[in-house]
Amino acid sequence: MAEFSQKRGKQRDEVLGGTVDFLLANARLVLGVGGAAVLGIATLAVKRLIDRATSPRDEDDAKGDSTCLEESWKELSLLKATPRQQARSPPAALSQPVALPAPSPAAPEGPTDTRPQMSPPLSSPAPLCLTFQEKLLAFERDHVTIPAAHVVLAKQLAGDIALELQAYLRNKFPELPFGALVPSGPLYDGLQAGAADRVRLLVPVVLEEGLWSLVPGLDTVARDPRCWAVRRTQLEFRPRGSSPWDRFLVGGYLSSRVLLELLRKALASSVNWPAIGSLLGCLIRPSVASEELLLEVQHERLELTVAVLLVVPAAATEDPLLLAWPLEGLAGNLWLQDWYPAEAARLRALDDRDAGTRRRLLRLLCGVCHGHPALGRLDRCHLSQVVLRLGEAEADWAEAALGEHFLQALEALIDSLAQASLPCHFDPRVNLFVSLRAEEIDDLGFALYSGLQAPEWLL
Predict the structure, then answer these.
(1) Which residues form the Mab-21-like HhH/H2TH-like domain (predicted)?
(2) How many helices and strands, by DSSP H and E, does the chain display?
(3) Same domain, 394 and 415
(4) Domains of the chain: total
(5) Inside any domain, residue 425
């Protein structure tokens, strides 16, 4: 009897599931995007309630209930699988001024009051409802755009810190040939999104020509396409110890982890930051909580974060720029390939070709994600790759299409999160979501899907 009841319940679930799938697949054609989203949410909610009422509860139910909310964004993202036929147009009620009520009809005739009437107080005009495009431009003006005076001051502080740190490294480690420290990053490429973006302070590791070679990460035991190994060569002619960098070798490879620890200890305990800050008119403190090498700079007019990055510069045009980055596991001693210079150069070239707004879109996405508690895991690299993909595919990049491209970027991120894969624009073998855990992907996907239904809430 129990088997018959279980079989009958299973058949009922299959019929119900087929009905739900049919409704979700055809709702968009009948109701449009907004109506389909509402119907999808309601249908899934009813389906889960029926499942709970008709299915015997076991130990897995409690676990399933806690994850049903996160799973729904993946299921409802299927509603957007069909391509858009036309650009979104805001509802008339949101794009037109609010009409004032018509005057009431005259009162029936009767005894009139000849006393002077007090005129009603003048009320302020009703505010007009803004379109999403207008709200997006207002968010850009208020939260993304940086005053020109602050940009100049930030560049000056970063340059002065670079000079002071370079002098310290030469005095502290005279045997190590560090190159000239170069401030760079979004602030210097017109990509700064508010005060949250960091200034990149590159510390070049100058290697001797002919003694070192680069090995792709796929050819190492880590099998990681994001990384490269820096191998020591010519040991039969130049034995170990003839290069000042040989003291940082691990298994015949230059270890990024050992070099990072050396610089971390120096920045945290050896550099006299109070004296340097007093000289520059600001307060400088190294961040001890982060795995990255960060300097927190506080000036009376702005706050700034400087990321100190050890790099192996490209010896030739086709060579990658490698960062010493806190990696885990077998890749701990490898060097991470830095895609930022290629991303910034490609976006600049695309915008220069058609006077487009791709870089403005990237700044807006960075500003939204930096200020959102659930979207902080999406860094500039993730967002740059999505904008590059849209920038190559879409033709119209005028300012009037900025709001539409913003929503397209959200949809592209949702699709990539549903697949747990964001291929690098320059090397499709690299999955930029590989470092995200499953629960982080669910949180990001649900937050983005909720924001796509009401994008004004993200601003």
Answers:
(1) 378-444
(2) 13, 11
(3) yes
(4) 2
(5) yes
- Note down the domain range covering 301: 146-337
Same structural domain for residues 312 and 424?
A: no
The torsion of the CA quartet 370, 375, 376, 377, rounded to 10 degrees, works out to -140
pLDDT at 290: 86
Phi, psi torsion values for 184, nearest 5 degrees: -155, -170
Instruction: Classify each residue of 389-420 as buried b or exposed e, where b means 16 or more C-beta atoms within 10 Å of its C-beta.
Output: bbbeeeeebeeebbbbbbbbbbbbbbbbbbee
Domain boundary among 337, 367, 387: 337
Mean pLDDT by 10 residues, the chain (459 residues): 46 54 53 52 54 52 48 56 43 41 44 47 56 94 93 96 96 96 94 86 95 95 95 92 95 96 93 95 92 94 95 87 93 96 96 94 95 92 96 92 96 96 95 94 94 90
Strands 227-232 and 294-298: unpaired
Residue 397 lies in a domain: yes
Rounded Cα distance between 218 and 226, Å, is: 9
Residue 63 one-letter amino acid: K
Predicted model pTM: 0.75
CATH number at residue 406: 1.10.1410.40
Q: Dihedral, CA atoms, 51, 56, 57, 63, nearest 10 degrees?
A: -50
- CA–CA distances in Å: residue 219 to residues 94, 114, 226, 227, 328: 56, 98, 12, 10, 17
Same domain, 406 and 347: yes
